């Protein structure tokens, strides 16, 4: 489930190297600038657009993530969460827009040791023990000797897997398996940890334990960007990015979101924002006499239960 931060080739690194001319906004690349790194957000995305063939998967997405916070990226399956995370770690080149991570362009060489990425698909070796996996990935990251052993011991403790250190990963539970992935991503003590649905398929008890680990990491200063399609995980985040159909519906802390929408919980707020967005889309579509994939008459009354049900038939939240 985990991949150490990918190493771009030299040409790729040079190509991705920060280019101050790429950004005209307030956040500039610090490789050549005097701005202190601490003043910059952990992540700043501007107008991100990604197309798959002719289909837009991310549509003009912009947001910032402050340092040392837990940020939840929430939205239904297929809305573009993984694509967005891949842009942040620099393995997905956007068709338009730009992502700045810890003062560098996403994927820039200096971020190799500063960003941890826990992918959705498992990528630790099931036939190796926890320690063997960690030693392998630490060596792949260039760690040798006592430095490698120190890092391995530290991360095993950080994810509470000391009792299972010599167990083959295949014999671990789902939650323990996820922790091995997380441990790999922590080997470099990343400043930014990007996790793609790390709690998917886990029971509530195990999810709770994992979130305690995330909170501990945030308290130590790590910025966490965590995707989920489980809305109740929003309560554990400092800040939320709500997505639907490749668009960012909101970027706010939970309390502001609830206050702004007048809703009692994040799921309700999400549905409210979708209705508002749908109504705006329908109005725009009526103006252009064409609606992309929606029936405008259903959206005349955005609050009406039938219209809502019809709108959510395509991708509902779990
Ligand atoms: N390699 C690809 N080729 C074509 N389409 C793709 C590819 N990868 C993703 N997509 C499409 O892009 C859209 C967004 O996918 P993405 O994986 O980013 O969504 P997601 O919100 O992470 O979904 P999930 O929660 O199910 O993982 C989906 O409609 C998906 O089918």
From TrEMBL:
<feature type="compositionally biased region" description="Basic and acidic residues">
    <location>
        <begin position="9"/>
        <end position="19"/>
    </location>
</feature>
<protein>
    <submittedName>
        <fullName>ABC transporter ATP-binding protein</fullName>
    </submittedName>
</protein>
<dbReference type="InterPro" id="IPR003593">
    <property type="entry name" value="AAA+_ATPase"/>
</dbReference>
<dbReference type="GO" id="GO:0005524">
    <property type="term" value="F:ATP binding"/>
</dbReference>
<keyword id="KW-0067">ATP-binding</keyword>
<dbReference type="Pfam" id="PF00005">
    <property type="entry name" value="ABC_tran"/>
</dbReference>
<feature type="region of interest" description="Disordered">
    <location>
        <begin position="1"/>
        <end position="34"/>
    </location>
</feature>
<keyword id="KW-0547">Nucleotide-binding</keyword>
<dbReference type="InterPro" id="IPR027417">
    <property type="entry name" value="P-loop_NTPase"/>
</dbReference>
<feature type="domain" description="ABC transporter">
    <location>
        <begin position="43"/>
        <end position="270"/>
    </location>
</feature>
<dbReference type="InterPro" id="IPR003439">
    <property type="entry name" value="ABC_transporter-like_ATP-bd"/>
</dbReference>
